[in-house]
Amino acid sequence: MRLTLRVWRQKNATAPGGMAEYQVQDITPDMSFLEVLDTLNERLTLDGEEPIAFDHDCREGICGACGVVVNGEAHGPERTTSCQLHMRSFEDGATVDVEPWRAAAFPVVRDLVVDRGAFDRIIQAGGYVSVPTGAAPEAHATAVPKADADLAFEHAECIGCGACVAACPNGSAMLFTSAKVNHLGVLPQGAPERETRVLDMVAQMDAEGFGGCTLTGECATACPKGIPLMSITSMNKEWLRAHREVARPRRK
Amino acid sequence: MNHAVSDTSHDHPYDYPDYTLGDPIADTTAPDGPIADRWDTRRFTAKLVNPANRRKHTVIVVGTGLAGGSAGATLAEQGYHVVQFCYQDSPRRAHSIAAQGGINAAKNYRNDGDSVHRLFYDTVKGGDFRARESNVHRLAQISVEIIDQCVAQGVPFAREYGGLLDTRSFGGVQVSRTFYARGQTGQQLLLGAYQALSRQIAAGNVAMHPRTEMLDLIVIDGRARGIVARDLVTGEISSHFADAVVLASGGYGNVFYLSTNAMNSNATAIWRAHRRGALFANPCFTQIHPTCIPRTGEHQSKLTLMSESLRNDGRIWVPKDSGDTRGPADIPEDERDYYLERIYPSFGNLVPRDIASRAAKNVCDQGRGVGPGGQGVYLDFADAIARLGRRAVEEKYGNLFEMYERITAENPYEVPMRIYPAVHYTMGGLWVDYDLQTTVPGLFAVGEANFSDHGANRLGASALMQGLADGYFVLPATLSDYLARHPRSETPDAAHPAAVRAVEEARERLRRLVGVNGDRTADSFHRELGELMWELCGMARTEHGLRKALERIPQIRAEFWRRIKVPGTEAEFNQSLERANRVIDYLELAELMCLDALHRGESCGGHFREESQTPDGEAARRDEEFSYAAAWEFTGTGRAPVLHKEDLAFTYVHPTQRSYA
Prior knowledge:
The structure holds 2 protein chains of 2 kinds. Chain A is α+β, with helices and mostly antiparallel strands. Chain A has 8 helices and 7 strands.
């Protein structure tokens, strides 16, 4: 296979960027999309050009480091991460656009690399259970219904890649935030901080400059881990509930 | 790939750097007495730091995986000021996240005969009697607390309908003690540690530096006092100081280029520490995992593991006859060789990893391998699907099957998986004592970065256990002893001569890399080294092969410095420079791995010397000569290192030839 790649090039956060065109040959269908970028980068290096910067690490779809917009879709045409996108999904001779995540809260670092530090700060605002090491009761002290454990897991699968934000026309981080709120919210271990968690995380999300949610559902369609759109509506409910609970005098 | 290498420039045939024998080394921190009491004893004898004084102590932690993340969070909870580093853009991405199968703990929830002593016994035996008994016993004791801690954090472990935790079996054991969260246990445990760490970052107790890579260790007056690190976004190199330094930077499997490790996992932190005086133990003990997706071509950038848990229900087989090219469905039952079940009837498909890998290699060497190039064996779920139903199989392994299908475009519900061994884990690492302290005072190593608990072969689901045991429970207890015994002295500043020198050396190395402007990329050298190591220091090793590797590696190193090409500058975000800088260290570490493998003239665990095998082809240990950990001292690049032996005494688990038949 051969492809024409049009890739976003931007030297640093403040420099202007633009699309640059490259021809890539000798692509086989079992190559991953990132291996095509590797191949191109090897050639660019030997030709004396600067290779394309992109984030990647585990290359098995779990670390969440990689993520590029391919032909306008976050992570490309398959519902997976960019590293697990294989070239069998592309037609020979096609022209493919490759861009970084686009969102005000994810500034470009270089080329296809963006800064997702805002996600870390949302977790720091309350995406945890306050249980210092050593303070834990025996694991079987609290039984957790299997259905609750499975539901928590479904939300805990989020890899923090940012595809939801990149796919959203508003650049909203609601799916990311709600995944953590629901993961911890449905478990008995997360109950004591249930209200403060959702209020603080949502406040941080807004402070980071992510857009508002209009429930277009693009986020859940792009999510490589299948975090469901219902996650967002559940969080909205949690947020309203938390406001009411916090307002009650007996909770103070 | 550009591998046009000319050897003609080397007029002098390379003599492999022989080693010299130094003084023996001993672990002096493990208490005597009954093994079950030693950890209690050590915790009692350890000096404590007054809670009010803890905030005056700064601890540097390098890495945010299970060991580093849990250590950073716990030290901060205790009141220490933690300064933490990771090369990733977020501490949540460390490669522990990719661990699939599970975490062992001696809870005995199944009432199937498990106990702390059995987990201890299985681990010492599984490691082929090359681990320290005291450490392993402590690991088994702590295992139960880890599960409690993680459940309390909200880790969504798999549960049964009664709401209690589910478990499954892993290789090398006959009890069901592995706790799991589908095929993403590492992810869930790491997120638990990451969230605990995040809480401490928010509280101001941890200063987190993502996208920052350690380039060197700063040693002042014989003690570890800081690190040199590079901001990967700006390229700025700076020094950071502390009262103690903890390395939690993972293993060195990427020496082989192709491995199941993340692409950027690297050995630079531990190797630079080794160059500054920390002994490096058992570098040749590498784990080749039996169930990985086979390679497909030249372009391949990494290998993907299929969890060992699949061996609970999948049956491994190859055709009985060599050269059988029929598809798996066309090979009748009586013409299949379920070789693990045949050779090891009592453990069957759940033999330890080293044994399963070697058996796969043997059948492929006999020409009975399947798939392209004959480098693969079948892992077949047809029987499990018939017995349990497709839904039950999907419930247990769904995400793994999906991952397999995505990579290979084959449906494992219908066609058996094809698997082949790949480099996965390194048991070797920085030598540490019972306190997890290296030979450089004030420098500690936790998790895969140290050598301590797995001997010559790690059992499945034990890496997560060890990483979290070290970080949540062991280090926080032992580090306080070090800090209490070394009252806080003035924090050195960046103008200290040792710091200035270390920073200048790191800068010079990067300038030199950029300055060569040759005609080969860092990846081309890395691939060349990896292929050499896989062939000569991989699943089977010989004296002849290792000598060849020891001759070749210094040549590649010389070639590297003549021909490396790194585009861009050192003062910017430069991923090519990051890679090239790591390859330099692989080129030195690989040599030590081969030397260690050459000197250890026995087979044990993952280290198989063809010269030392039993009549039926199993690894033959030679306890009289080699019942020790080999701790190597650095003396200079390409110079003969010094070998310090730590004798291993076994009083609770008597060494026998391992038998899984």
